[in-house]
UniProtKB/TrEMBL annotation:
Database matches in PROSITE patterns: ABC_TRANSPORTER_2 (PS50893)
Pfam families with a match to the protein in the record: ABC_tran (PF00005), BCA_ABC_TP_C (PF12399)
Domain ABC transporter: 6-240
InterPro entries: AAA+_ATPase, ABC_AA/LPS_Transport, ABC_transporter-like_ATP-bd, BCA_ABC_TP_C, P-loop_NTPase
Record's keyword terms, sorted: ATP-binding, Nucleotide-binding, Transport
GO MF entries: ATP binding
Protein's recorded name: ABC transporter ATP-binding protein
Highest rank taxon of the organism: Bacteria
Length: 240
């Protein structure tokens, strides 16, 4: 049996007296889209930061294809195969839109800076809806376009696991439809994804399985239609 793409076991993160993630365990299988959902403050972004190496767990282990990630710096985690977008987007100023995507290929996948990577970056920009914007300065892009850029940059690293932290947030209805179709395309080509998301119909249509968090703990796990109808999950979302 091959190891799951991601395996989180008993992961704990404390900030002083606050336990933001409380002994959370889950796995993500190859080609699976896992929804990490739950009300605000439930620990989802902290979990994503623990996986990507931005934070170090207080306890527990996180493995990528069997290899422990805990304690690795974010750049090492990226090189190990974890790509991500941020809730608050982070573009690389001083580099063009095209160069931002190419940088993702160099840092995430140790690709050589050159024509092959450039051609791929152009294709990715086309795919996320930024075709023709290659020469622009990323800091001049709108928030939504910066999110598109981040996704292209993450994909340029050809990640074994892609972490999307509220990538659909803030989109208007038309953009939302395009965004969902884009993620569905990534799923259909066999990518393995953890989706932190609040948009319920996106969760229902994109996720194979959901892990629901509340107050740092995992309170439910299963297919979206099932978990979203569980009374404890409904109560958590209603803040009761
Ligand atoms: P979510 O992504 O589900 O909205 P977060 O992971 O952002 O939740 O936050 C979980 C809890 O941890 C919240 O109570 C939040 O205030 C707290 N928290 C997150 N990051 C920090 C930090 N760097 N220092 C202190 N508390 C934090």
């Amino acid at each position: 049996m091959t190891a799951p793409v991601l395996q989180a076991e008993g992961v704990v993160k404390r900030f002083g007296g606050l336990t933001a993630v409380n002994a959370v365990s889950f796995t993500v299988a190859e080609h699976e889209v896992l929804g990490l959902i739950g009300p605000n403050g439930s620990g989802k972004t902290t979990m994503i930061n623990l996986i990507s190496g931005a934070l170090t767990p207080s306890a527990g282990t996180i493995r990528l294809r069997g290899r422990p990630l805990s304690g690795l710096r974010p750049d090492r985690v990226a090189q190990a195969g974890v790509g991500r977008t941020f809730q608050l987007v982070r573009v690389l100023p001083g580099l063009s839109v095209l160069e931002n995507v190419m940088a993702g290929g160099v840092f995430g996948h140790r690709r050589a800076w050159g024509p092959a990577l450039e051609a791929e970056a152009r294709t990715l920009l086309q795919r996320v809806g930024l075709g023709g914007r290659e020469g622009e300065a990323p800091e001049q892009l709108t928030y939504i376009d910066q999110k598109r850029l981040e996704l292209a940059r993450a994909l340029a690293g050809d990640p074994a696991l892609l972490l999307l932290d509220e990538w659909l947030a803030g989109l208007n209805p038309t953009e939302l439809q395009t965004g969902i179709a884009l993620i569905a395309g990534l799923r259909d080509e066999g990518r393995t994804i953890i989706l932190v998301e609040h948009v319920m119909h996106a969760i229902r249509s994109l996720c194979d399985r959901c892990v629901v968090m509340n107050s740092g703990s995992r309170i439910a796990e299963g297919p979206p239609a099932q978990v979203l109808s569980e009374p404890e999950v409904v109560r958590a979302y209603l803040g009761e």
